[in-house]
Known about the structure:
two-stranded antiparallel ribbon
Amino acid sequence: xxxxxxxxxxxxxxxEETEYKPKPLVEIGGKPILWHIMKxxxxxxxxxxxxxxxxxxxxxxxxxxxxxxxxxDFSLDLQTSKITKHTGHHKExxxxxxxxxxLETLTGGRVKxxxxxxxxxxxxxxxxDGVADIDINKLVDFHxxxxxxxxxxxxxxxxxxxxxxxxxxxxxxxxxKPRMKDLVNAGFMVCKKEFxxxxxxxxxxxxxxxxxxxxxxxxxxxxxxxxxxxxDTYKDYSDLSKMWExxxxxxxx
Length: 253
């Protein structure tokens, strides 16, 4: 099953990093967050990726085209142009399709443009800016059990603010950034090929396609109760970088 990763957005809320590079190439622990996401899927045997490119997509192509040289120590004889590779990192067993999906294209339009590369009855879909310790095999099993057009992974996020408990004007307690009861879409979706038929025009599939499918009772939610963290802002980037230094929860490989 192929894994489609949305990599085309401009990441304006992370302008400190994304002014010069696409958000999926923002590094956590010396590796792009896109690499971390792909490692999560690869851990479960999913190694066939389609990257939906847009903003500064050329840089993502260049990162992987130069991946071998960046991973290995090597010697170069300038006189003969002979290159000798030395020890390096483990070589990933990845097959990657780089799909140019437009600079201003919305998420639904990006997905629609890669339809020609999907030859299975199912495919996975996620964002290029969030990591989790999610069990991909359990997600796929749940999707097949529910037999819906799409299954999204839902998580309970932590509030960005401390909450105050009060009664009749009196403060009873403070709850510092608690986990919320509501669920949000964490990405890590599984779709039937019919999902493409629901995208008629360039659109945000989150606000157009998913609500329409839910009204048809064709959307399922896999509740992930473990770790999940997006990288929307500079604080998110900073928090993930700090986590990487001390047993990061999403490093399941």
